Amino acid sequence: MTKKYFGTDGIRGRVGESTITPDFVMRLGYAAGKVLTSVSSNLAKGAHPAVLIGKDTRISGYMLEAALEAGLSAAGVDVLLTGPMPTPAVAYLTRALRAQAGIVISASHNPYYDNGIKFFSGDGAKLPDDIEHAIEAELDKPMKVMESARLGKARRIDDAAGRYVEFCKSTFPSNMDLRGLKIVLDCAHGATYHVAPDVFHELGAEVIAIGNKPDGLNINEQVGSTHPQALQKAVVEHQADLGIAFDGDGDRVMMVDAQGKLLDGDQLLYIIAMGLYGKGKLQGGVAGTLMTNLALEHALKKHQIPFARAKVGDRYVLELLNERHWKLGGENSGHILTLDKHTSGDAIIAALQVLQSLKLSGKTLVQLGESLVLYPQVLINVKTTKKIDLGHHAEIQAAVKSAEAELASSGRVLLRASGTEPKIRVMVEGENATLVQKLAEQIAEVVTQATR
To answer: What is the 3-state secondary structure (H, E, C) of the chain?
Structure first.
């Protein structure tokens, strides 16, 4: 069944348009309250269900928070408000406070004029498709209001930030600290601005924070994991040991070594995997996505570590990990899941796992980064005017097979249609940069001709 409102990660859009309006979000709060609490079986008779709401630092968060609160209250649901809080913090606090569900108001790495609504179940996991379908079905029904005696109440969780800081610290070995490390943190003027510096400082690091002065309009603006240039510059200027960049809602991470070199999600995933492998604590294999660099797969194979690819999107990585009972996976964009530590991707916790590997190895991040050299990867987006079946188009498949024959085992080809734009994404990667560029251009030309 196709979903009407939900995408791969909640509901997202431009503020004031379509779904991201006060009216729709109030009705969404009501519908979600009705559905999410109806599936909860741990409530005492007559007790009000509770839903936790957190948000990032966008100015529209105030408006949408109020609309959600009104809708949930009308459904007879108590509301717990955390204020600005990273997405993974909401997942943790939902479990810690025994709420029936958690809601995050955020558009992640998007600009301030976008916003969105994400949901967590009571156990801190993203909602399954059947619950999202049920919420959409409830949205199509008239909104009713509970009688006054049964309306929900709202209260602020004043110690939410402190609770989350302690949780993050608890995922780092108690016999280990970060003393002697100078770290630059780029908080993207987002939800980590008031928690991430405390986590790393309290573990002993010297912390220099940038991107930590949100004004409602500057989230992700030339800072954070999607714009790492500011961090690269700051690390070199401050002669720091390394830098850590988060995105607006704190579930993506990139890192920078002392030389100002950027390490993406694939490299960080490898560093964490090898740290766990060296201690004999890597549970199963490692999950990536269709976009994970082939160099990571080859490097893991040398150590006989199983590797599998999921569709692009952290929810699909999570599904694959759960299916195989593995604990570690991620995307090159910096979504990293360490399921032995948390139920969702968490940028702060992932960074701490990298630092744990660094401490155990006695090496610098420069040295650990050199342990995985990524293969050149060329991505060409071909605009299309009509839909085609990529898997059964003779000319395109012939071009792909020819390229794969040239690459042999030293590279791969991936074609996929964009889920949001009329484009075909042509990706070729391999050890030989010149060959990769040539083959990508050849395939892109065939796709261009086929879609005219």
So the answer is: CCCCCCECCEEEEECCCCCCCHHHHHHHHHHHHHHHHHCCCCCCCCCCCEEEEEECCCCHHHHHHHHHHHHHHHCCCEEEEEEECCHHHHHHHHHHCCCCEEEEECCCCCCCCEEEEEEEECCCCECCHHHHHHHHHHHCCCCCCCCHHHCCCEEECCCHHHHHHHHHHHCCCCCCCCCCCEEEEECCCCCCCCCHHHHHHHCCCEEEEECCCCCCCCCCCCCCCCCCHHHHHHHHHCCCCEEEEECCCCCCEEEEECCCCEECHHHHHHHHHHHHHHHCCCCCCEEEECCCCHHHHHHHHHCCCCEEEECCCHHHHHHHHHHHCCCEEECCCCCEEECCCCCCCCHHHHHHHHHHHHHHHCCCHHHHHCCCCCCCEEEEEEECCCCCCHHHCHHHHHHHHHHHHHHHHHEEEEEEECCCCCEEEEEEEECCHHHHHHHHHHHHHHHHHHCC
Q: Catalytic residues, which ones?
A: 108
Q: What is the mean pLDDT of the chain?
A: 94
This prediction's pTM: 0.93
Confidence bin at 9 (pLDDT 50/70/90): confident
Average pLDDT (356-363) is 95
